[in-house]
Amino acid sequence: MTDGAEPPPPTGRRGLRTGRLEAFSDGVFAIAITLLVLDIAVPGGPQPELLRTVAALWPAYLAYVVSFATIGAVWLGHNAITDYLDRMDATFVRLNLLLLLFVAFLPFPTRLFADYIGADRPERVAATIYGIVLLLTLTLLWGLWRYAVREDLVRPDAADEEIQLLTQRLTPGLGGYLVLIAAGLFFPVIAVIGYLGIALFYILPVPRRWWAVRRSRRPAQRGPGRSRPGDRRGT
Amino acid sequence: MTDGAEPPPPTGRRGLRTGRLEAFSDGVFAIAITLLVLDIAVPGGPQPELLRTVAALWPAYLAYVVSFATIGAVWLGHNAITDYLDRMDATFVRLNLLLLLFVAFLPFPTRLFADYIGADRPERVAATIYGIVLLLTLTLLWGLWRYAVREDLVRPDAADEEIQLLTQRLTPGLGGYLVLIAAGLFFPVIAVIGYLGIALFYILPVPRRWWAVRRSRRPAQRGPGRSRPGDRRGT
Amino acid sequence: MTDGAEPPPPTGRRGLRTGRLEAFSDGVFAIAITLLVLDIAVPGGPQPELLRTVAALWPAYLAYVVSFATIGAVWLGHNAITDYLDRMDATFVRLNLLLLLFVAFLPFPTRLFADYIGADRPERVAATIYGIVLLLTLTLLWGLWRYAVREDLVRPDAADEEIQLLTQRLTPGLGGYLVLIAAGLFFPVIAVIGYLGIALFYILPVPRRWWAVRRSRRPAQRGPGRSRPGDRRGT
Amino acid sequence: MTDGAEPPPPTGRRGLRTGRLEAFSDGVFAIAITLLVLDIAVPGGPQPELLRTVAALWPAYLAYVVSFATIGAVWLGHNAITDYLDRMDATFVRLNLLLLLFVAFLPFPTRLFADYIGADRPERVAATIYGIVLLLTLTLLWGLWRYAVREDLVRPDAADEEIQLLTQRLTPGLGGYLVLIAAGLFFPVIAVIGYLGIALFYILPVPRRWWAVRRSRRPAQRGPGRSRPGDRRGT
To answer: Considering CB atoms only, which of C23, C31, C129 is closest to B23?
Structure first.
């Protein structure tokens, strides 16, 4: 794409590939998040008291918001991870596919929960399955990041504290899900509200961190002595 | 991506992020707008008079056109907003997710309206719910833009009158929805036709404004004295 | 994105906008083409003779192939059009939305045809409706291109014969649909096979034209005297 | 996009087109892979033993994983192919559409298999149909690559052994499907597990080949004597 004196840097090609992985992942995230609405349906037949019927669908709305927030949070996390990446390797791409397998699966436990809340035993089963799928999704996101850090795929100009910060952000959610899955055996609705809490924990707080902290460091790096993409951290 | 003498400008990175937010948002817009067709269905069983059956689906077509036009209008507005943006911050990205939550939800009230028109009380409920979701969607689009302006995320070379113009464009729709929601308690079909009118108000008029006004100013700015991306308005 | 001595050319911005319109359009095309499969369904209940049941679904497969080919052809045509564009204006974007409204609507008449073939009168109605939606879709694609040519949105380095070639390609399909819609009143299945023929006419023949003819001219233009993006044809 | 002294290289335009074909293909891959979840559904009515009901859906999960892995593998292969491409021609674009026709069709045989497993004769029919669609999909991917090689669309700096490697990777799967389709007439579930094996064969092994082998060669090519995009192999 460039045509200066130097030959195109290797990042050119990498960028293309990263681009396609991101485009494909964004597609799956966007579709999974939008298919959730298909799980909300008014039962067939005439509904003289439509307002009451629609209000009675609250578990479907709750499940919609929980799954929407979770996929949104995972998308933000995925964004943060790929944003730190310098390059990808074959395993990273495969792990990413595995993560997407669970993201794309989420509409199923969402519907399950929306359909069976109110029925005593089924709602416990549904909340537990829901929590397990959410836990596995976050675990894979966490694994994707751990793998990238361990295999040194992270951009060399990323400070160590930033890398640790992202790791520290991802970890508590895993414990949270474990606690809530256990709690869901007794209080399924509370567990699901807790799942929403975890998603909001990733979406809401620490403003100006995941997204903005790196920008604030940018100006200091803009001199000619800025580290080149080819450098390795610690060299 | 470039490799001239100067280091890459900060916009390079920002572009990437803006790109992913736009790609994800475009995905959700495109999917939500295309899923609307699933709400149009001929009732099962043999239909000897298929033409009559298909004609009787007019509420579904009306709802399809209204929701399609509304999502199209919100997409155009979203385009106009991100086009003015110089950068994003964490809150902007979260507000954008909240907007998408309502965009992705729109197929549900669309189907509700298509299914219950003709039944006296239910159609009023359906039209009201429809209007409230549309109102919330536009409110969030409006809030996204207000936030961007207040936090000074707008590109420094955007003229103040352009910013005001976009604000003035977004505001009347909010009042329009409020009036129509009230009217819908008595005349639900008329209210829904009014919702279409609001969407067309955003899609049709003021040609060469949202999209083209900025291009016409471009030539005048191409001299070497053009403001740099790093500048702040008012500095 | 670039950072040489000259200020960024106006194409930079235009590219971004064209990019988003293309991304959104590609999304709608891709989703509409993929949703078609949802219209193919085995009737519920046990099916001891599944092979016979699956074979009996041939109208659904035919409709799937026809609609897939048509959307594919429209996508190719849309590609050819935006590829010739130098810039877009507000009306072009709105016409594009109107085209997408029909593209996204196509799964409905597709399902209608798949469901009602075999029943004498309904299949004629379904084939006619199908043909009318296909005709409107191609008409809008044709209108998009005519508008672009009339408003001089086409890239200045596009030769007049190329522009005429694309126009000549798009026109006969319109007449073809009109003839087939009339024929469909008597022979619905033959009409639908004819719709497939029109789509294949756009997909298959004239190889190395829509896509490749312009590349073969490229080398001759690579000298320093190559026309600049800012030039107008005929100036 | 660039703006140096030289005129934009022909790759600029090609990149755009490749970009749209990739974006559209990625869209179809992403949607088809995400629609698979809609085939997993708990039968209606109260389910006091929901855990048992959900467990009894194992054929649906198996089919989900098989189809997800297959589409993922085809996406990886498609990625590898377009990554080697120097340019596209009209036929390549059409072959690609034909591949997508089968990718988008995959949710149907997936659902068929999930629904009819357990019923003796229907499950054999379903497994056979499933295998044939998978075989056709891989055949088209293989044909796409053969066509690209034969028509010399491959980038000139791709080593012959790399090209052969990709060909050798794609071929055994075709034989594998043939064997499994035959086996599926007697042991349908085993055949479907075999389909998963083929997909994993493409996804898992030979790490650092499809994706990474070319990167390791890059540094050696970065001198000024690097082959230019305009060169042909063997010249």
So the answer is: C23
